[in-house]
Amino acid sequence: MRAVTISAHGGVDKLEYRADLPVPEPSSGQVRVRITAAALNRLDVHMLGGLPGASIVAPWILGADATGIIDAAGEEVESPAVGETVVINPGISDGTCAFCLAGEQSLCVRFRLLGEHLPGTLAEYVVVPARNVLAVPDRVPAERAAAYTLATLTAWRMLVTRAKVGPGDEVLIWGIGGGVALAALQIAKHRGARVWVTSGSDEKLERARELGADETLNHGTMQVGKEIRGRTGKRGVSVVIDSVGQATWAESLVALGRGGRLVTCGGTSGPEVVTDVRRLFWNQWTIMGSTMGNDAEFAAVVAEFRAGRLNPVVDSVFELENGKAAFERLVSGEQFGKVVVRI
Predict the structure, then answer these.
(1) What's the rounded Cα separation, in Å, for the pair 192 and 201?
(2) pLDDT higher than threshold 80 for residue 53
(3) Which helix (H) or strand (E) segment is 34 a member of?
(4) Sign of CA dihedral 92, 97, 100, 105
(5) Closest CA to 332 of 197, 177, 222, 174
């Protein structure tokens, strides 16, 4: 089996294209997916560099997102059938803990992610529980299907389940151009919200306007919170979507209006943030964390994809043999949309 792997943490020079790995076999309740395309996420860059507490067994296969065709199934698998085209939910739960039984699989006490805790999707085959795949039309380009799941599922839980975004909301999304931010823009617009986006690139901001962003802010040339306060008559926004953490937290709270909701799914700039508790209770803010999504949310986002209401933005496509170039594109920060690897 061919795959993009690492045997040690570091930079892109640690990536290894292999063509000698064994093909995995499904156990009871599992399916094997012959992958046609996979997509990179910031998680893959973190795994390459080394995440605190994360351990790998060399050669470790990276990647979380993918689409492909079911080519084998273990016992007790009734659907999807062999031959169906599917997308993969990369969040693997045990299905038995109290959270799973309550339908909150992403809170599972043994929650794991492909590419981080389990072998990933930058390979010709991957084995996952049957409940972690759902069928999509085979007419959909593989590059789009591969780019969809992780970012959209994450954004859906943040905006729909956690923040309950709807008409009348003003939503600030940091760092437009990344997969979660672009999915959040689409979801917020579909739910009737007015959307503010930031970037350090005027070109990305222009592309965001073409996708429906109402207000654009260059966070490299202005103080985002102060600018939003000025444009809204000091009212601020009702929702902030922040995956950056340390570098944006203070400005996120300046931008957040009374009774506002801040949802975070990451800390790419650093994990430690400072919050003035007096402002927190006086403004009656709600600050929420969010990770991936549950099975019901996975079904919901796949239904949106099948209906053509949500579609990922694909930045570029690379062949599996050129995995290093794909990572270099993502690390550069110049991408607008998802970096996809064709297999």
Answers:
(1) 26
(2) no
(3) strand 30-39
(4) negative
(5) 177
Tell the CATH superfamily of the 152-289 domain: NAD(P)-binding Rossmann-like Domain (3.40.50.720)
Rounded to the nearest 5 degrees, what angle is found at the Cα of 304, between the Cα atoms of 149 and 342? Answer: 35
Q: How far is CA 223 from the centre of its chain?
A: 26
The residue count for the chain: 343
Whole-angstrom Cα distance, residue 308 to residue 151? 16
Checking DSSP bridges between strand 125-129 and strand 30-39, what pairing results, if any? antiparallel
For residues 340 and 343, what is the distance between their CA atoms, to the nearest angstrom? 10
Q: Which two tokens stand for residue 192?
A: 């009737």
Distance between CA atoms of residues 122 and 326, nearest Å: 11
CA pair distance 148, 128, nearest whole angstrom: 18
* pLDDT of 67 above 90: yes
325-333, Cβ contacts within 8 angstroms, sequence gap of 24 or more: 326/40, 327/12, 327/15, 327/40, 327/44, 327/45, 327/48, 328/12, 330/40, 330/42, 330/44, 330/45, 331/12, 331/45
**What confidence tier does 52 reach under pLDDT thresholds 50, 70, 90?**
confident
Listing DSSP states for 102-131 in one string gives: TT-GGG-TT-EEBTTTB--SSBSEEEEEGG
Question: Which residue carries 């954004």 as its tokens?
Answer: 155
Is the distance from CB of 213 to CB of 185 less than 8 angstroms?
yes
This prediction has a pTM of 0.96
Task: For helices 323-332 and 42-49, give the axis angle rounded to 10 degrees.
Answer: 100
Q: Which CATH architecture has domain 3-148+312-342?
A: Alpha-Beta Complex (3.90)
Q: Strand, coil or helix: what is 158?
A: helix
Q: What is the mean pLDDT of the chain?
A: 96
Q: Where are the domains of the chain?
A: 3-148+312-342, 152-289
